[in-house]
């Protein structure tokens, strides 16, 4: 089971739940599972079929924007603002 | 089209002639006519020193000198600092002291530092900092530049003695 | 004391042959003799020159552009406006280092229906001579409908503020509004129960802060030469931190395939984040296409200030609570950063960095990305982090003062460590903050007295992410046993040498026997930008892996030569041995060059594990109470570098960023009048530090090796700019008793505060 941290701004959809355990093997599946349990999530996290450009995702400290990214059991998943350096 | 002015001058020890308009700066002519691109345009109004060259034995911001003023003058650019395939002590110390990061300000600093040490072979840290205050560097924070000038001063003093 | 390297005893430091030494940089002779070619130095035969026409108004509708008079002038070859750029897709793309929206980028490169800041490029003209181009530019007639401008972030957030974009809806993970505004994004983080946390605190301090727009201040203005050939191929020579990102941006803006574009990174005169998004390359490209000649555009200094990408001004309200024993219990931040004319500024990292140095169990952060009539902001060395560090680090200082706890000890007590969870969610891997704070606590500076009136000492620490991202490298073994390293990371600070050193260490050869070359987009595999403190880490890893590839090939070939199995070959210190055979790398390379194919190593990496960067400052100041001028007496920076490949260049990054932070703290700001016009677009009045303003910058490199890099490297390029304004503000407090909460703490402002405090 992956542990998905629900961003504070999404918690109106999850009734205040800030962490959720899910069975998923990819980031795409994480979002699909979230949408099943908490309808409206996918729309907030994605632009069409891609992650919203304002976001990146940390999967066990590995930063990614690919929905194909693998999510293993006990993975920690965080949705974060995307950042650039200088 | 304005008529160009003919200028005869000396650059890095060689007699040189060029044509320029009255409005051209020495910086433009050095870079665009004479292909001496070592001096750089950083601001074009005398505030950054990236264009520093020697003119009649004084360091000047060449962006603030009209090209026509070069008539009969002695100009030295960074291209003339190393002699006979050997880097000048100031240049060598800059390299060993890691006194450059992006290097854009370096030609200006080399000219100013060399001029300082020729005028004052034993400068204090504050004297070095004051002399170099007209050359801006955004990468290094100046620390290694100052230390490299101090190192060059030591070596040049030894060579004299 | 000047430069020191500290290896905490817990870290088991390794011994290296090349790494940790200080060879002269490979491009050094070129740079001290003026031979290095920067973009403005580059010329092609038959080249034309371009000049811009820019909006004099901070906010205006563009009603018409009449280029007919300009086009008639002798010597004028072509003009360009946004009509010459294809309609942009409203497409946002991940460019490795944050996202770029192409519609916004196109509108910034050449204004479409509106001029959104004074200096916004509206048109460009190419002519046979730069002076003719500049004259012709004055004959381009633009009709504007002037609109009211807004240049302060809180004003831009008001209900009745002039709206920059008709359809900008605030991006948020929460419920979206339907009403357009100037707020591009709202970010919200929560951890624990912040109200409960404040209730548990014995001391709660809440303060407000304001910072002004500052520019990266690189000495080299933007410059490019573009050649759009009749076969449809575009080649651009440019000053850039990332040639591949320029190629990508050109492809999207001009709607041509990347296969038709080559970008050549010239030597670059500073970037600091400001030379990643494109400005003049697509404009020069369009002019070149139109006139059939190569076109060079170099920006003037005032254009750099008005028309490129400074870092945001900001308003911040931060509240922190602690127990009387000094344990932080809660933190709350409300942050508004300007984004400039288009959304997509650096509020995200600001929100993530505000409490990032500390283990605070209860926290809440709200951040707003706000558009207004200033140039679109870009990254400036650890973008967004310096602002919030001003707030957090001065509040920590106040808490320390109130509780009677030493300011370094208070930080150590609450310092983030491996496993600490940040307010945005992830936990830290092995990091070096504690060791960095220990290093300043044990430093000679901290333990030496500071005496005299109007003098004070302040400390602060700061955080930045480091990037990994993609890098490629190839390495060719030459006939004489030297190795040419081919890589694509533009060299802003000596990185080609640190990469050569990593390859040399891996192969057991000397750094002088490696010839590193920074090449164009046709000559090396995809490489992300030079930025994000990533080159020594990621491109270094690529150099290391290319070296391993070479070593593997050498082992195969020498095994053939010595008629044994590859597993039988021993390699140590660059010497290849089997039985009684022994050859150095060089000797073997010379042998192998006589038979068989060339030996070419390759690597392409996209590493994780860049970890994070922390730095800490001690600064001693003396305040002239009659003028408000602050003199920096002594300045120390400690920073965790993991492992310093070339210590001089690590020190250089630490010193350079520190001095940029000093300038940000004491003098640098954009002055706007009430028409939204920038009044100080020159180095005279945009006052950056000179050598005469500063002491030596003392450095302490702390080496807590990064387990995810073969040599332990952590990126060092950015974080040094984060703590100085806070450290200086804390020092000024100790010197004068006055807390300055707005930047810059320039003489007029400090003088006024002193006069007010004295009842004048």
Low-confidence stretches of chain C: none
> What gross morphology of chain C would you assign?
globular
Please identify the oligomeric state.
heterotrimer
Most extensive interface, chain pair and sizes: B-C, 57 and 59 residues
What topology, given as strand order, has the largest sheet of chain C?
4-8-2-16-13-14-15
Span of the ends, CA to CA of chain B:
57 Å
Q: What gross morphology of chain B would you assign?
A: globular
The percent range for strand residues of chain B is: 15-25%
Contiguous helical run count of chain B? 5
In DSSP terms, counting alpha (H) and pi (I) runs of 4 or more, how many helices of chain C?
19
User: Biggest sheet of chain B: strands side by side, in what order?
Assistant: 2-1-5-3-4
Classification by helices and strands of chain C: alpha+beta
CATH architecture of the domain at 1-14 and 428-466 and 610-760 in chain C: 2-Layer Sandwich
CATH 2nd-level architecture of the largest domain in chain B: Roll
- What do we call the CATH topology of the largest domain in chain B? Ubiquitin-like (UB roll)
Q: Order of SSEs of chain B, N→C?
A: EEHEEEHHHH
Q: In the CATH hierarchy, what is the class of the largest domain in chain B?
A: Alpha Beta
Write out key terms for the chains shown.
heterotrimer; A: 86 residues; alpha+beta; Ubiquitin-like (UB roll); 5-stranded mixed beta sheet; two-stranded antiparallel sheet; 19% helix; 30% strand; globular; C: 760 residues; Aldehyde Oxidoreductase, domain 4; 6-stranded mixed beta sheet; 25% strand
How are the secondary structure elements laid out?
The complex is a heterotrimer of chains A (86), B (161) and C (760).
Chain A: E1 2-5, E2 19-22, H1 27-37, H2 41-45, E3 46-47, E4 50-51, E5 55-59, E6 62-64, E7 76-81
Chain B: E1 5-11, E2 14-20, H1 26-33, E3 52-55, E4 58-61, E5 74-76, H2 89-96, H3 106-119, H4 125-131, H5 143-160
Parallel strand pairs in B: 1-5
Antiparallel strand pairs in B: 1-2, 3-4, 3-5
Helix pairs in contact in B: 2-5
Chain C: E1 3-6, H1 28-32, E2 48-54, E3 60-66, H2 68-72, E4 76-81, E5 92-94, E6 99-101, H3 102-109, E7 114-115, E8 121-127, H4 130-138, E9 141-146, H5 153-156, E10 171-172, E11 183-191, H6 194-199, E12 203-211, E13 223-228, E14 234-238, H7 243-254, E15 261-265, H8 280-291, E16 295-298, H9 301-307, E17 314-322, E18 328-340, H10 347-353, E19 362-371, H11 385-403, H12 407-414, H13 433-441, E20 455-465, E21 471-477, E22 483-487, H14 495-507, E23 514-518, H15 535-561, E24 570-572, E25 575-578, E26 581-584, H16 585-593, E27 600-605, E28 612-624, E29 629-640, H17 647-666, E30 697-702, H18 724-736, H19 747-757
């Amino acid at each position: 089971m992956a542990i998905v941290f629900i961003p504070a701004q999404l918690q109106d959809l999850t009734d205040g739940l800030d962490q959720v355990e899910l069975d998923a093997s990819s980031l795409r599946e994480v979002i699909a599972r979230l949408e099943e349990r908490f309808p409206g999530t996918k729309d907030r996290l994605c632009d069409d079929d891609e992650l919203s450009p304002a976001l990146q995702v940390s999967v066990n400290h590995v930063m990614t924007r690919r929905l194909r990214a693998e999510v293993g059991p006990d993975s920690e998943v965080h949705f974060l603002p995307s950042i650039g350096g200088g | 089209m304005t008529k160009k002015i003919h200028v005869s001058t000396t650059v890095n020890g060689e007699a040189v002639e060029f044509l320029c308009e009255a409005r051209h700066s020495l910086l433009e002519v050095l870079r665009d006519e004479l292909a001496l691109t070592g001096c750089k345009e950083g601001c074009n109004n005398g505030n950054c020193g990236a264009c520093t060259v020697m003119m009649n034995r004084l360091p000047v911001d060449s962006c603030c000198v009209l090209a026509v003023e070069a008539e009969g003058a002695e100009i030295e650019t960074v291209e003339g600092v190393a002699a006979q395939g050997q880097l000048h002590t100031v240049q060598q110390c800059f390299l060993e002291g890691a006194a450059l990061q992006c290097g854009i300000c370096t030609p200006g600093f080399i000219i100013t530092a060399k001029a300082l040490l020729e005028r004052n072979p034993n400068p204090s840290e504050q004297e070095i900092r004051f002399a170099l205050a007209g050359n801006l560097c955004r990468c290094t924070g100046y620390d290694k530049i100052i230390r490299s000038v101090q190192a060059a001063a030591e070596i040049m003093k030894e060579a004299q003695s | 004391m000047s430069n020191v390297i500290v290896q905490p005893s817990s870290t088991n430091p390794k011994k290296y042959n090349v790494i940790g030494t200080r060879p002269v940089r490979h491009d050094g002779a070129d740079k001290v003799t003026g031979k290095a070619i920067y973009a403005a130095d580059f010329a092609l035969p038959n080249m034309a020159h371009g000049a811009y026409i820019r909006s004099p108004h901070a906010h205006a509708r563009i009603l018409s552009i009449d280029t007919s008079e300009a086009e008639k002038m002798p010597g004028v070859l072509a003009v360009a406006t946004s009509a010459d750029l294809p309609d942009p897709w409203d497409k946002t793309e991940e460019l490795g280092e944050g996202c770029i929206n192409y519609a916004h980028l196109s509108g910034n490169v050449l204004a479409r229906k509106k001029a959104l800041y004074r200096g916004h490029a509206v048109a460009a003209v190419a002519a046979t001579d730069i002076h003719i181009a500049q004259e012709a530019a004055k004959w381009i007639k633009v009709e504007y409908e002037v609109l009211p401008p807004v240049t302060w972030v809180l004003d831009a957030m008001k209900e009745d503020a002039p709206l920059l974009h008709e359809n900008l809806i605030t991006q948020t993970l929460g419920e979206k509004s339907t009403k357009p505004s100037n707020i591009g994004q709202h970010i919200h983080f929560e951890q624990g129960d912040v109200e409960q946390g404040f209730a548990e605190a014995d001391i709660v301090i809440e303060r407000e802060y304001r910072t002004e727009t500052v520019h990266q201040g690189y000495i080299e203005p933007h410059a490019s030469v573009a050649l759009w050939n009749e076969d449809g191929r575009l080649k651009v020579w440019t000053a850039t931190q990332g040639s591949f990102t320029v190629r990508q941006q050109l492809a999207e803006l001009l709607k041509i395939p990347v296969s038709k574009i080559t970008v050549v990174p010239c030597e670059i005169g500073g970037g600091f984040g400001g030379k990643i998004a494109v400005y003049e390359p697509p404009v020069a490209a369009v002019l070149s296409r139109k006139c059939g000649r190569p076109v060079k555009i170099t920006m003037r200094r005032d254009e750099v200030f008005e028309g490129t990408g400074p870092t945001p001004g900001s308003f911040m309200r931060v509240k922190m609570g602690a127990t009387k024993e000094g344990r932080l219990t809660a933190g709350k931040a409300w942050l508004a950063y300007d984004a400039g004319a288009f959304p997509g500024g650096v509020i995200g990292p600001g929100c993530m960095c505000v409490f990032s140095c500390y283990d605070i169990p209860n926290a809440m952060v709200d951040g707003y990305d706000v558009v207004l009539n200033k140039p679109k902001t870009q990254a400036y060395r650890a973008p967004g982090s310096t602002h919030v560090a001003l707030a957090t680090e001065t509040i920590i200082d106040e808490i320390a003062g109130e509780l009677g706890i030493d300011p370094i000890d208070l930080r150590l007590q609450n310092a983030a460590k491996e496993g600490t969870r940040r307010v945005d969610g992830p936990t830290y891997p092995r990091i070096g903050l504690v060791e960095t704070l220990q290093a300043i606590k044990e430093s000679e500076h901290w333990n030496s007295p500071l005496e005299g009136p109007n003098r004070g000492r302040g400390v602060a620490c700061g955080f930045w992410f480091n990037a990994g991202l993609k890098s490629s490298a190839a390495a060719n073994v030459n006939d004489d046993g030297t190795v040419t390293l081919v890589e694509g990371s533009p060299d802003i600070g000596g990185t080609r040498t640190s990469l050569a050193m990593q390859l040399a260490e891996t192969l057991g050869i000397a750094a002088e026997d490696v010839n590193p070359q920074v090449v164009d987009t046709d000559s090396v595999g995809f490489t992300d930008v030079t930025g994000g403190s990533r080159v020594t880490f990621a491109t270094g890893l690529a150099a290391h892996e290319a070296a391993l590839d070479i070593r593997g090939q050498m082992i195969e070939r020498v095994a053939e030569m010595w008629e044994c199995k590859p597993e039988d070959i021993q390699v140590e210190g660059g010497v290849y041995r089997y039985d009684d055979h022994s050859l150095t790398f060089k000797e073997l390379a010379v042998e192998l060059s006589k038979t068989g194919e060339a030996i070419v190593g390759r690597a392409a990496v996209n590493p994780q594990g860049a970890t994070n960067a922390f730095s800490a400052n001690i600064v001693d100041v003396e305040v002239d109470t009659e003028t408000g001028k602050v003199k920096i007496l002594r300045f120390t920076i400690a920073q965790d570098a993991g492992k310093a490949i070339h210590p001089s260049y690590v020190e250089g990054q630490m010193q350079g960023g520190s001095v940029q932070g000093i300038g940000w703290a004491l003098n640098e700001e954009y002055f706007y009048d009430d028409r939204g016009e920038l009044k100080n677009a020159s180095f005279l009045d945009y006052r950056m530090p000179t050598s005469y303003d500063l002491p030596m910058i003392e450095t302490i490199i702390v080496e807590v090796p990064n387990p995810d890099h073969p040599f332990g490297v952590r990126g060092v390029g950015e974080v040094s700019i984060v703590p100085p304004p806070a450290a200086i503000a804390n020092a000024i407090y100790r010197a004068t008793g006055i807390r300055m909460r707005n930047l810059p703490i320039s003489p007029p402002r400090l003088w006024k505060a002193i006069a007010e405090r004295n009842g004048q």
